[in-house]
């Protein structure tokens, strides 16, 4: 308890899944959680769940992490409400994966925007506030985009080091149930906490044995 006491945590994609699990878990550790999602009503529901458990959360409005202006105003609402940003968990994302000849080319661009550009935009908007707080960035993405996300996280870690900013990738395995999701949230709490003060530029895979399975493979 209280491993994130008083920290302002921006968590994207809080309508469901890992984002909701992380928002609840961060709040239970004392973080002031600013959530957001394209699915605004569901994200507000997450905020209500946090409040019901005695936590503090804010969900300023519909958030589109692929839209620079949307991310900017989300971040500014957080700063106006809580005075700064200590943690950014760039969790929101969506994928359209498939065989190379099985999906339209536009789907590749969609996935890159939703999983990689979104991280850049989210971190970029919060960067001055992270510099001020010597904060922490967590990135998340599916196996298929980790080859882009890990170097991006490394770049953030290198660029952030002079300012005391850490950046770590949380690489979830395949999951669609509460158990694995709460394991991922647990990893995220650890990485965002002072217990991980010497961890940056790393990729923590929280995925059972799924990291050994390529996208599209069957078991
Ligand atoms: N579930 C898995 O098996 C798995 C595995 C590896 C990585 N991941 C990654 O972890 C992250 C969370 O996964 P999840 O399982 O919770 O997914 P999910 O689909 O259950 O939840 C993702 C959330 O992000 C939101 N979102 C999508 N695009 C958005 C946008 N442009 N702006 C704002 N919100 C947006 C969705 O509405 C949704 O609420 C994603 O980046 C995902 O790719 C998931």
Instruction: Tell me the helix content.
Output: 40-55%
Architecture per CATH nomenclature, i.e. the level-2 architecture: 3-Layer(aba) Sandwich
* Class derived from helix and strand content: alpha/beta
Radius of gyration: 16 Å
The CATH superfamily bears the name NAD(P)-binding Rossmann-like Domain
Uncertain ranges: none
Our estimate of the beta-strand percent is 15-25%
Mean pLDDT: 93
Number of domains: 1
Spatial strand sequence of the major β-sheet:
3-2-1-4-5-6-7
Outline type:
globular
Are any ligands bound, and if so which?
nicotinamide-adenine-dinucleotide
How would you sum up this structure, described in words?
By secondary structure, the chain is α/β, with parallel strands linked by helices. It has one domain (8-206): Rossmann fold (3-Layer(aba) Sandwich). Helices cover 47% and strands 15% of the residues. A seven-stranded parallel beta sheet has the order 3-2-1-4-5-6-7, with helices on both faces. The radius of gyration is 16 Å and the shape is globular. The model has no long low-confidence stretch (mean pLDDT 93). The site of nicotinamide-adenine-dinucleotide has 29 residues, from helix 1 and helix 4.
Task: Describe the structure using short key phrases.
single chain, 219 residues, alpha/beta, Rossmann fold, 7-stranded parallel sheet, 6 helices, 7 strands, 47% helix, globular, binds nicotinamide-adenine-dinucleotide
